[in-house]
Amino acid sequence: MPYDDSPPPTRRARPLSVAAALAAVCLTAAGCGGGQEPGEAGAASPRPGGNAATSTDPTPTGKQPEPTASATPSAKPLPKGPLTGRTVVIDPGHNPGNRDHTREINRQVDIGTGRKECDTTGTATNDGYAEARFTLDVSHRLRALLEAEGARVRLTHDADRPFGPCIDERARIGNEAKADAVVSVHADGSAVGNRGFHVILPAGVKGGGADTSKIVKSSADLGARIAGHFARTTGSAPSNYIGGNTGLDTRDDLGGLNLSTVPKVFVECGNMRDPKDAALLTSASWRQKAAQGLADGITSYLKG
Questions:
Q1: CA dihedral 159, 251, 175, 90 (to 10 degrees)
Q2: pLDDT tens digits, the chain, 304 residues: what are they?
Q3: DSSP secondary structure string, 11-47?
Q4: HEC sequence for the chain
Q5: What does each C-alpha distance from 216 to 27, 48, 58, 211 come to in angstroms?
Q6: Cβ atoms 89, 173 nearer than 8 A
Q7: Is 224 helix (H, G, I), strand (E, B) or coil?
Q8: Could you tell me whether strands 152-155 and 210-211 are parallel, antiparallel, or unpaired per DSSP bridges?
Q9: Residue closest to 269 by CA, chosen among 287, 284, 296, 251
Q10: Are 254 and 182 in contact, with CB atoms under 8 Å apart?
Q11: Dihedral of the CA atoms 109, 115, 119, 124 (nearest 10)?
Q12: Strand 248-251 relative to strand 108-110: parallel, antiparallel, unpaired?
């Protein structure tokens, strides 16, 4: 079936206090269900019960492509706004080309506390709408909203490379940009009946090249604000199977978080394998709401 990926007109992001953001999550949780198993943009295997489509080639080889212009700011002049002078990195989960490069994306990379696959293919709805396509669409919408507020926005990729980037490079792009906030956009692949969104926060991790001690608190603040705004703007509830109805989940096994030195969260926007969530994720108007909820949460954090 055709999907409309063209973004509707943008609107200004609206700030919300941390208390109000958390209240929005709590108020929504009682009346709605939702969720999916989290997976990492290009690396982590899903937790038990997840259904993310990952590649399985046991003998990966191949060199990771060099970063392209997608990792640099837009050249167009930005309007003056409340986010002028701020840098946001958006990390679209997976890459549409990963499915054709299973050997390369299965190459193991260092995540500080161990090793994981360079990337994964991501999941898809039952009728074939790929997570990688969803994440790019939402990321484009989010970029437009943030740039309208004056932010300098970088994408870790824009489907402008054959595969990846690997999870360690995704983290490095945010670090080297000295980003004020990094948001990795995803959708889950869990069981039918698991519905809703959740925001994944970095745990306190120190080992090898990983040390999240300086970003745990700030990332939790960013995640809480995004969760509150996302619930309010989209009408979706926090996950009914991850995070105890808070919409927040803390993990220590994701390289994209472990290797970050700047505030960063993952957002699982819904469960692509549940028909009700899939109906939302495949709707252009809902994806615009999702982008707006993310933008409002990021703006609230950066202005907080």
A1: 40
A2: 445 565 554 444 443 443 444 444 443 333 333 333 333 533 333 333 333 333 323 223 334 444 444 555 556 789 999 999 999 999 999 999 999 999 999 999 999 889 999 999 999 999 999 999 999 999 999 999 999 999 999 999 999 999 999 999 999 999 999 999 999 999 999 999 999 999 999 999 999 889 999 999 999 999 999 999 999 999 999 999 999 999 999 999 999 999 999 999 999 999 999 999 999 999 999 999 999 999 999 999 999 8
A3: -------HHHHHHHHHHHHTT--B------TTSPPPP
A4: CCCCCCCCCCCCCCCCCHHHHHHHHHHHHCCCCECCCCCCCCCCCCCCCCCCCCCCCCCCCCCCCCCCHHHCCCCCCCCCCCCCCCEEEEEECCCHHHHHCHHHHCCEEECCCCEEECCCCCCECCCCCEHHHHHHHHHHHHHHHHHHCCCEEEECCCCCCCCCCCHHHHHHHHHHCCCCEEEEEEEECCCCCCECEEEEEECCCEECCEECCCCHHHHHHHHHHHHHHHHHHHCCCECCCCCCCCCEEEECCCHHHHCCCCCEEEEEEEECCCHHHHHHHCCHHHHHHHHHHHHHHHHHHHHC
A5: 25, 25, 34, 10
A6: yes
A7: helix
A8: unpaired
A9: 287
A10: no
A11: 180
A12: unpaired
**104: closest CA among 74, 61, 143?**
61
Place of tokens 């803390």: 250
The amino acid present at 135, given as its one-letter code, is T
- Look up residue 276 and give its amino acid: K
Beta pairing class for 264-271 and 181-188: parallel
